[in-house]
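Hi there. Long-time user, first ticket. I'm pasting a complex I've been working with (about 282 residues overall). I'd like to know whether the download I got is complete or cut off, because the file seemed smaller than I expected. Thanks.
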Amino acid sequence: MKLLTKHTDYAIRALSELCENKNKFFSARQIAKRQRIPYQFLRQILQGLIKDKLVISKEGSGGGFRIDKDPNLISIVDIIAIFQGNIQLSDCMFRKKLCANRSNCVLKKQINRVEKLVNKEFKGITIGCLLKDLEKQRRRL
Amino acid sequence: MKLLTKHTDYAIRALSELCENKNKFFSARQIAKRQRIPYQFLRQILQGLIKDKLVISKEGSGGGFRIDKDPNLISIVDIIAIFQGNIQLSDCMFRKKLCANRSNCVLKKQINRVEKLVNKEFKGITIGCLLKDLEKQRRRL
DNA sequence: GTTAACTGATATTATTATAGTATCAGTTAC
DNA sequence: GTAACTGATACTATAATAATATCAGTTAAC
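Hi, the file is complete. Here it is re-exported in full:
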């Protein structure tokens, strides 16, 4: 029962890493080591980020990945969407027919309401704002 | 990626069924049939509801289950808690140590915020209010 | 007092999602 | 040419969820 999977978690970390220098290419191996992410798993994740054009890659020796979108425009819903599909709090919503019992449908309405709320909140959480929070935290130490 | 499992979904339906007549004992077989819930699965769920004293049971022929708590005081967080533990949107929160990367911890803070929001909203959704919604819906038809 | 309709408790299996690993082909810089 | 990379994809492992099966004990009614 969780809304964020490792895919999303690792993707966020990888993106933050890339933001350390937006012009540099970081190799998957580098990122994996620094962020303690299983290497092959990270490579899959990076492929996902490429498809959505959040990062760009360079093949060959000295190659790697570079951020390709304004961090302030990368929200965690975008990342969730890549790896987990749209946010849905209950299976119930997938059922095409009306539920056997109507009470389930009134539940669905309530859940939909909360779902929209979560979506809205998550949209507001961007890589950019996470980095800002991080900066603040660092200054405080 | 869902917050409500079948356990919770079925439990809500079973409780609504029991509310049809708060003094009557309904057998698991009856409920299963009417709500189209796999019988043995439902029995497990009802055992869970008994442990938390949401329902009471009567053994033997003519026995079954009866609601034992004011529906207005049964919130879906209570039910989620029985079958899924506390609401947690990310695994990250389980890690005792600080994350390798601090950015993860700032993420944690944001997720915690949304988590509290979801909890608050879910607390407001009770069996009682779902039944009320259902009544309204019926009257409209 | 036997039988049918029940619950209590628990073990087992199936299914699916998530997480992680392995491999091979192709690219690039030196 | 070779070491350090990515692209693509197949495979395996683990865990959570969903569902099934079984047996012992209880109760009501005949």
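A couple of notes from our side: The mean pLDDT of chain A is 87. The domain at 6-140 of chain A is CATH 1.10.10.10 (Arc Repressor Mutant, subunit A).
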